[in-house]
Amino acid sequence: MQRSSAQTVSSAELTRNFAYWQDRAAHGPVTITYHGRPRYVLLAAESWDAEHAVGERESNQRELEYKFLVEHMDGGLLVADPELKITDVSSAAALILGHTQTALVGAPITDALPTSTHVTLLSSLRHVLRSGEQAQFDLTLDEGNGTRLRVRAVPWVEGVALLIRVSYENDEEARLAEQTALEKARVAHGRIEVIRLSVRGTVTVAEIEFAKLVGLPRERILGLRFVDLLAVPDRTVARDAVEKVLSGRSEAEAFDARLLSGGSEEIGARISIAPLASGYAVGGAIVIVTLDPQGETVQ
């Protein structure tokens, strides 16, 4: 049905000629004014039903999309109103907090978390509500096993949303200690270099010792393709290995090659490369270069 341009009628005129304006409403909305100001809209029932159905479909679609994202996000989600009462909670968040979704919705947010965390929690959430800024903080879940809750609070449409993840402090400390020990062992070994590559195969991280090894300033190495640091005959094998890893077709590749050093000189090395995960994709690669035990340099 084609609609006419905007129509306006005073309430007095509508009362006197209701049949006429009722007919006009069949061709498009009629704005009813009172003392010159818009107060109501007269709309044909079929138009109202059609627009209401479209709005309802759009609302249902948004609700489905929201639920899909919430249930597939990494961690859990809590949503609270300005009074810090929970209005929505994902199944993952309910599982993390040890409550049912039904029990959490409508409850004060402090009911969902250990009492020992309330001061930190409320202070941070009130800051988010007041300032509109994000906040990140940790809450203790279990002192005995070092379990903590990593929380990122962000402004929501009406209130605040909390993205929560469980963190195991003891595990993190153990991983950090292991990484530190491995780094010390690598430095003591003296013949191992670690390089990081971008998804394009260019060098993004290289240490000063590696720069000295290849005879280039570190600033010049960053941004270079890694394969260009190798002797020309070895570049095809290296290029294939890098491409396999960065494309996700291989979990790791290893090969023998010669590093260019000081122009015409070459240093024998064993090179391995493994992908760096970024979400569900490859975000780059780590390259480990093990130099020839004799430090052999080929002219």
From TrEMBL:
Signal peptide: none annotated. It comes from the Bacteria. Residues 62-132, 194-249 form the PAS domain. InterPro entries: Antitoxin_Phd/YefM, PAS, PAS-like_dom_sf, PAS_fold, YefM-like_sf. One of its GO terms (biological process) is regulation of DNA-templated transcription. Belongs to the phD/YefM antitoxin family. This is PAS domain S-box-containing protein. It comes from Sphingomonas kyeonggiensis.
